[in-house]
Every structure is written in C-alpha cells, then in structure tokens.
Amino acid sequence: MKKFYDRVAEGYDLRNSCPATMRLRRLELKAIRRFARGRVLDIGCGTGFHLGFLNGCVGVDSSGAMLRKALENHGDAALVKGDAELLPFSDRTFDSVICMHSVLNIVSLEKASSEISRVLKPGGFAVVSFASIHDREKRRAVKTESRESVFKRVRIEGNAMRMRLFSRREVSEAFGRCGMEDAWFGSVFSLVSPVWGSFKPFSARERLLLLLERILPVKERGRVYVMAFRKA
To answer: Which tens digits make up the pLDDT trace of 5-14?
Structure first.
C-alpha cells in the first residue's frame, strides 16, 4: 500500500479537489471542528489537507511521497512516517485522533482501532471517515468472512487497489471492543452517486438531493460514513 500511495502522491491534491471529495471533506471538517481538541494526531495525513485546519497537529503517513507533499503544503507541520496498524507513539499521547478519507478501508480495522485507542488519552475523541457498504456495492463486491463487510476493487490513476467496505455497526463494534463509545454519526451520498475524480459540478437536481440528505432519515444508506468516538 505504501508503494501505491507513493505512485499517486503527485496528482493526489488535484484529483481530490473534485466536487465529490470536497463535499465529503465538508462533512469531515464539521466533525473535526466539533470534536478535535488539544494535541491532535492525523493518521494517514496524506498531503496534509486536514493539517491546515488544526493547530499543533501531528501528521503520520506510511508513504514518504505523501509526507513530502505534505511538507510542501505545510512547511511547519510535524510529520512522522508510520503505519496506522503500529503507531510510533507512546500510550495516551494525544487528546484527539483523526483518521479520514478511507484509511480504515485499506488497513486492518481491528488493529487500527486498537492503536487509536492506545495513543488516545481517556476522555479523548477519535474522528474517522470510511467508505461504507451500499446495496449496489454488495452486488459487485467479493464477500469476506464477515457477514457485513465486503471487498471492492477500484482503480485510481490506473493503479489497482482493494478496499474493505464497512457497515456502521461493524466499525462501532470494533471501536467498542477498544473501550470507545459512539459520540456522533454522519453520512453523505445516500441519494446522489458520487463520481470520484470527476470535475463536473453537481447538477441542480443533485444539489437538491444533497440538501435532502441532510434532512431525510436515510443516513445509514450513505456511501461514506463519518463517525466520532469517545474513549472512556
């Protein structure tokens, strides 16, 4: 996976400036601004998008190319090379942890949630976003041993990768086993099908549907979930 992100690092910021990604990032930032406080760890910081919204944040990523781009974008950022499944930090180091933009879908959920809990201080919050299971995705995906999660094959800039998609309950239970409790839930793209990497603006109809997503009780049908957890 490190090699994959090394290959796509150069075009990462441009590709993720598309309308679909920016709509997701608005929801992510809503949760971050509500729950992230004190000393914050950004797991899978990539090129550093979220670092610009947090003071005193430490970014960690397994890709050296991504960290170099993050340093270009935020010259004063504290950046560390490391893996979400084995974080290079002591226990109870951070007041908050964020892990955004589908990092959980490409690492071990079980190991990553355990590591997040380990480095988080009691009473601290973790904010995560991840690609979720949707009925259409289930029909195209390869089933795993879990009755809820599935794998989906995707291509990014011609590079193939495989993502594990999760239900809300599956992620909630994984964090719960690590002593963390649900604090907040949000979702996006339940009524609109996002086209990742496309720079075509949302149509008037799609903008209306995106507005309805914020009103109607269809949150658990979204294609991406954003959740916050509190460590007991």
So the answer is: 888 888 889 9
